Amino acid sequence: KKLSPNDIDLFISAEIPNPDIDPVLHEVIIKSMIHGPCGSINPTSPCMKGGKCSKRYPRPLTKETITGDDGYPTYKRRSPQDGGRTVNLKLRQGNVVSIDNSYIVPFSPLLSRSFNAHINVEYCNSVKSIKYICKYVNKGSDQAVFTISNQNDEIEIYQTGRYISSSEAVWRIFSFPIHQRHPAVIHLAVHLENGQRVYFSVDNVSERLLNPPPTTLTGFFELCKIDPFAQTLLYCDVPSYYTWNGKKFNARKQGVPVPGNPSVYKSDALGRVYTVHPNNTECYHLRMLLHKIPGPTSFLSLKTVDGQVYETYQAVCKALGLLEDDDHWDVALTEATVSESPGLIRDLFVVMLSFCHVSDPLLLWNKHRDSMAEDILHRLRQQSDDINLDFDERMYNEALILIEDRLYLASSKKLSDYGLPSPNRDNIPLFDSEYLRETSYNTEEQLRFVQENEVKLNSEQTAAFHQIIQSVEQDLGKVFYLNAAGGMGKSFLINLLLSKLRAQKKIAIAVASSGIAATLLNGGRTAHATFKLPLNLGVTETPVCSIKKNSTLAQILRNTSIIIWDECTMAHKAGMEALDRTLRDLRETNKLLGGITVVLSGDFRQTLPVIPKGTRADEVRASVKSSYIWKHVHMLTLTINMRVQLGGGKADADFAKQLLDVGDGKITNINNEIELTHSMGVLVDCLEDLINQ
């Protein structure tokens, strides 16, 4: 029976009690049942999200209780004008605010008075609320971690405890069901031929490779070979008539008899084939066929239509008329060839493959490959001075390489995943922009820069310069750390190293932990973008870079002579360790960082790795100094401040020294606070004086 508003008011209240009639209840409600306060009177309350209270307070004031259609009534909350009470509440900030009934959490006077605690009581009368509350009350025990400490003992003992409510205890004592699911849903595997998952251990690896365990799909094929009734069923219908015991399907012995098949029984069990993303082209179309063709006996039988065997499941789906044609994609590419460059046409083709679920990508490629390779033909004609040169497989292969590189960036897929031919990557693509970027520096300009600036190096810079060049030329694969504060000429030295090696036609990669720092390096980029570092470095136990072995970037790293990583002090150690694992794999060596000479630079006085909600210890733990790589690092230190020497003033030198003292923590008082002297700056009275100074 649905309670009336008056009945609800007998059990639940959302108003401040009368202190004269029931002072005890009044005190309990004021202490335990006021929400917040929040809203305009306290916008910093923890419940405020986007300028609004996430618990929907303050609630509307009303003279009487109103029952809603969704099962949650609007409780009686009288305004002060209608006889409602108010109380003054002191906030943490010290200011006093007036609270009315709109901030009172619904309560039961009996329970609140009995337990003197925060007990929220709500009235629920619809399925919308009951279906949630029943599961919530009986969802299982919670856990809490608490500490027992002794002021006279430095050791703290941590224990884990659990508690259950009395209602849950009774529920479990009487063995009432907690959850129930009906009907049974049987998951059915879907995979390509010899593409199922195989679990093995060291002891049975050979056996599992030779005789992989059957799956529900291979078991379905075997069942259809021997059971005439199974040959009439689709894959998803099999669990209604058969049970799977891990090795094969067996006919059910209970259920509703099937007319005309007295030995066959049907249950209410459902079969559901695992979903497959359309980008997994062959497996996606295999799943489609399993929902359309009854009683297949093998993978080959699924590829056979009217006696003709097709090469792909996609082709079978097309032959059966299960797919839409690609006429609209063909029209789009045809229109693009009229006005767009071959590079943009390739990009359009990549977008179609990645997001448009093209039914026959190979047909589109064969029809429009000349348009996608037109710029390659043009450049080869210019190089060979042969105007009669025509398209050949080499040019199409170059176009496929460019398309696959773009495709991998867009969706981490290969062309073979879409039924397209895989390009031959034995040689570096002639026109790959990424490879050209690292190998096409003007050697004359680089050499001129070295000749003009090498003589400007001071003694410390010269020593560091020659040690690093020696490691590169002798293939020593050393790892250096260039320790230099601001103004020591670190960027100047790094750019000189880059020009020196690029003038010798060597590949020198320059990266930095931040985009601003990368702009100061010749050809510099961020480390994350260059090495494709994972974003969740602090979560993955052994992260690796997302670089394919057959990609252009992998070939660049195989031929790289030096890597310079500026502002490495800001980088998470896991990023550098991921690069180490990747370089060892790509270069097929166990040498540190693949045997490449690496120069790390930065200043540990500045920002360390940023760890969300982390402590100082977390930042130190994430620093490169905590990495296993650090013990192999050769230290190179720059202490001569080149900015001061160029400025030439004693005041500049003193100022630079004071800055270093601040970074070293030498200028602190007894409260561990930094004290700056007047010599560190000039006090001004207004903005104009600051500009003039």
UniProtKB/TrEMBL annotation:
InterPro entries noted in UniProt: DNA_helicase_pif1-like_DEAD (IPR010285), P-loop_NTPase (IPR027417)
SUPFAM superfamilies: P-loop containing nucleoside triphosphate hydrolases
Gene Ontology molecular functions: 5'-3' DNA helicase activity; ATP binding; hydrolase activity
Catalytic reaction list: ATP + H2O = ADP + phosphate + H(+)
Keyword set includes ATP-binding: yes
Family: Belongs to the helicase family.
Name of this chain's protein: ATP-dependent DNA helicase
Organism: Cacopsylla melanoneura
